[in-house]
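Technical appendix A lists one of the benchmark inputs used to test multi-chain prediction within the project. The record comprises two sequence entries:
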Amino acid sequence: MNTIDLIVLFSTLGLIVGYGVWKTRENSNIESYLRGNNSMKWGTIGLSVMATQASAITFISTPGQAYEDGMAFVQNYLGMPIALIIVATVFIPLYYRLKVYTAYEYLESRFDLKTRILGATLFMIQRGLAAGITIYAPAIILSSVLKWDLNLTILLVGGLVIIYTVSGGTRAVSITQKQQMAVILIGMVAAFAVMLDYLSEYITFSQGLSIAGKLGKLDAIDLDFSFEKRYTIWSGLAAGIFLQLSYFGTDQSQVARYLGGKNTAESKIGLMFNAMMKIPMQFFILLVGAMLYVFYIFYVPPVHFNQSLMQKAKEENRLRYQGLENYHLDMGMRRIESGEYMAMALRKDDDVMMDAAVKSFYTWDKEMKRARTEMEGLIKQAEPEAELDDSDYVFLSFILVFLPTGLVGLLIAVIFSAAMSSTSSEINALASTTVVDYYRRLFKKDASDKHYVVMSKLLTLIWGLIAILFAIFANSSENLIEAVNIVGSLFYGTILGIFLVAFFVKFVHGTSVFVATLIAQVIVIVCHFLSVNGVIGLGYLWYNVIGCTLTVVLSIALQPILGKKTA
Amino acid sequence: MSEEPQEAKPPFFGSWRALYVFVLLWLVVLIGLMYWFTISF
């Protein structure tokens, strides 16, 4: 990055952080710090909910996901509008009526203290891990492409977040998220426009879509009933409802966003805003990735997008490295010709010519993949532990190589903003849960408001530091957007199950649901272990259904055995 | 769908039920458009 880009980057971040700290400089009581004085309107809530969910992983990893596998991932969000309607009609009125600070407070009044603590604990395990990934994920990639030290990058992301989240609490989180979303949306649209401008030298946007479609990158909706496929319309609608319902209804990082509303109406409208805008937003981000694939037909891509691994391969065997690079480039040039034939076939509306062009494309594509496989072998020789999946580097590589000066800085600011917006919600939620569900409930029940505000700030700082530590010691072998959804799916089902029993199965009491949840959680983890080791084939979205269903069914089954309500 | 007795109506559609129905219809339209997108290109 050059000086102008660095200025754009740090100015953008500085303005966001500074504005957040200044705007929320007075937080005199716990009501203000944890619930923002119930002052927020639906627009702030809507953007805040969206920004909390859309971490840097969304913007780094999702285009890469589409580049590799097409747009099917959008189906992950199909259950969201239905889930949000349920949250609006069932969860919001209840939380407002009970005046809770956290979702888990409700569980004590409905069941007992141990169930409340279990719910809060499962949330903190899941969200604590996710907070580490949310910082680690962008940091590892940014440090690799920008050649910054990894730990310094982690400290930069985490440190900036801690400053305004500790200072201003939930209001600071929501206010900064508005600015962050604006930066994110402007940046993504600008990047897309630049990509189309480059492509216009060869093809129109419509022709680009046709080529992407012919090459299987635009399959947004899959009607297949397979349980093994990760993304189908059925997993998105059925299993996705469970994931989204648990996330928006019971995950404190989202509950805190809408509990800060002026009233239930503002919270509900904020959620409906999300229900309508999230899927189009995700579709657009995936479309960026699909069009990136077309872009890299006409502009030969690097053999491997992770340039730091390429450097290691070069140092391992320079001659072999150069040979593979030259061969890959040569095949890439021939693949460009296939792309041009495809464009010509589209202009002439000639299906026979198109089929021949696609066949030619795959011939050269296969040769490029062969060169890539050999390069991966060289990388593994140089670094046996190297993670070869480079889909998370595709979009960043495009940004750094092809975007003009200034816009590079803005797009890197997009990624930092997205990381910060999610992490701030997470550590704010973790601190709230620790103060309300543990500290105030179990240890210090009648302290002053000022005491709890100080403890909240201290715990926000501690959770921020824990997230940074997790990030420093983290390692990931999955595409990052999938990693964070897998971690979520491991725990969301059981947490949702507890809440569904609480709302709808009134004859079940604390001990039954407590034991049922523990059993269900173990079974979900076993399912994941079996799936990862190839014993069973099960898409991770289904963990939510399994965890939730087992918790509910086992609670009902155990109630006659485990007896009456505990005091 | 339950509603709080004193809760304000939404600024559009006149009732919460109507707003939720609109959101569901929007979902159906989105799925339809994305399916059309899938089969068209």
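Residues 1-5 of chain B have pLDDT under 50 and may be disordered. The first helix of chain B runs from residue 16 to 40. Comparable benchmark entries are summarised in Table A2.
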